[in-house]
Amino acid sequence: MTVRTPLCDLLGIEHPIVGFTPSEHVAAAVSRAGGLGVLGCVRYNDPAELDEALTWMDANTGGHPYGIDVVMPAHVPTEGAAKDLDRLIPEAHKNFVEQTLLKLGVPPLPGDAQAADGVLGWLHSVARKHVEVALGHPARLIANALGPPPPDVIASAHDRGMLVAALAGKAEHARRQVASGVDIVVAQGYEAGGHTGEVASMVLIPEIVDAVGPDATVLAAGGIGCGRQVAAALALGAAGVWMGSAWLVTREYQQLSTAPAVQQALLEATSSDTVRSRIYSGKPARLLKNRWTDAWEQPTAPEPLPMPLQNLLVSEAHQRLMQSGQPDVVPMPAGQIIGRMTEVRPVADVMAALVEETGEALDRLSGLR
């Protein structure tokens, strides 16, 4: 059964499902399965690596459209090279991180491994380079995780025939985004993984649909992991859904080297096993709750630093936590739908189940009249 909404014609896709992921393999598979795969760019410190990933996607999406997601804060954060920014990080914070890793039994990086500079994609200047790379590829959509991109970015995207999306956690944010030229507003509720606001999806989605009216297309995000939740989002007025956490337990995600511990942790988690915290990036983000996040909630823990200093502070720690192979310490953004994630499946199977259950739910609802 096929469920079509105006979003399908707008993006040139078969199903009104957008899949956000840090994996180009997952993003390409989502697009091949009839949705729109959106590749998160923030982990690419080197624009050349992003260019390589998008070139791979150009060749592996089967001619289907895809999108990219950048992180461009509304207010330009502290800039500088990683070494310069490191001087702004208090020694007490560095000592806390190191002592916490020791208490958790997390080993140092292997002798031949090089510590990363942190995710410099949080920097406005690096995000701009991501945009420049993306504009050189046939992406259908460019999305910004932290509100509307700057006006010149929106104009450049539109000049190349790209649609522009922005995530919003409040109706007032959505109004400002549409006024700035955004085509698609992603109404992301409190339940969502990663950066998220304080209003739950059931309340937020219809508020934003009403706020923007016919001036923009609205996607629903947060708390969507099955077809019944897709149908609920459509009933609330959204033209489609934006999903992220559900793809973390797909077979294609296993191409990332850190996947085994991440997937084991997610498969064992319940919907209560997340926490909203600033320890990941400096801005509130929903993460998988574990011994690492618990350490930051202790009375002796320091306050997280602002973006991008917090991510630079924990960048090597994140490497060590991931490479430790310990599922109970992985630093992973994840939404509350993780309680529904009980097995590893190919992206195509996840998409087929979503579409089938959405159709069944809509049929059941129509039968109530």
Fold blueprint:
Layout: H1 6-11, E1 17-21, H2 24-32, E2 36-40, H3 47-60, E3 66-70, H4 82-86, H5 91-103, H6 124-134, E4 141-144, H7 151-159, E5 163-168, H8 171-179, E6 184-188, E7 194-195, H9 201-212, E8 217-221, H10 227-235, E9 240-243, H11 259-268, E10 274-277, E11 285-288, H12 291-295, H13 309-323, H14 347-366
Helix pairs in contact: 2-3, 3-6, 5-13, 8-9, 10-14
CA radius of gyration: 20 Å
Q: Uncertain runs with pLDDT below 50, 5 residues or more?
A: none
Biggest sheet, strands in spatial order?
1-2-3-4-5-6-8-9
State the end-to-end distance.
21 Å
Structural class: alpha/beta
Q: Estimate percent helicity.
A: 25-40%
Determine the strand fraction and express it as a percent band. 5-15%
| SSE series | HEHEHEHHHEHEHEEHEHEHEEHHH
Number of helices: 14
Please tally the β strands and state the result: 11
